[in-house]
Amino acid sequence: MTKHLDVVSYCTNALADLLKGVTGLYGLYDVQRFSFDLEPAEARWILRRRGDNVHITIRRFPDMMTSFDVPDGKGTLEWTSTRPRTSLAHAVLMAAEKVRRTHGEDGYLRKWVLHPFPTTELKTLRHLHLAADGCALQH
Ligand SMILES: [Zn+2]
What we know:
By secondary structure, the chain is α+β, with helices and mostly antiparallel strands. The protein is built from 4 helices and 4 strands; from the N terminus they run αβββαβαα. Strand 2 (42-50) and strand 3 (53-61) form a beta hairpin. The longest helix is centred in the last third of the chain and has 28 residues, at 85-112. The structure holds zinc ion. Zinc ion (ZN) is lined by residues 90, 129, 135, 137, 139.
């Protein structure tokens, strides 16, 4: 599997946005978008549900302050991957739980300053993943 790494500013609630974006893949809409603020660049994640799979695209725009209404196609394609929804949700859950184990909710708030750990968002995604994906991996 290929990897993608960005260093994200604490100005947006990035972990919550990621959890909410993946949670959205269990709802009515086939496309979910959210952006990470790379100060000043925008890394825009576009998740498209296709049956049991999710097509993930990350596009980069030079300036988050001006790019919020710029269409996806104008951004630089940084990374793309197609994964089963269950694998994506599982990976995001495990990553978020690892963050909580490593830093604790108090430590997370001290580091991230503007946003508390997204406990509710994590719980919601875990519930949907377990109920809808039939994931056989350990949780
Ligand atoms: Zn799982």
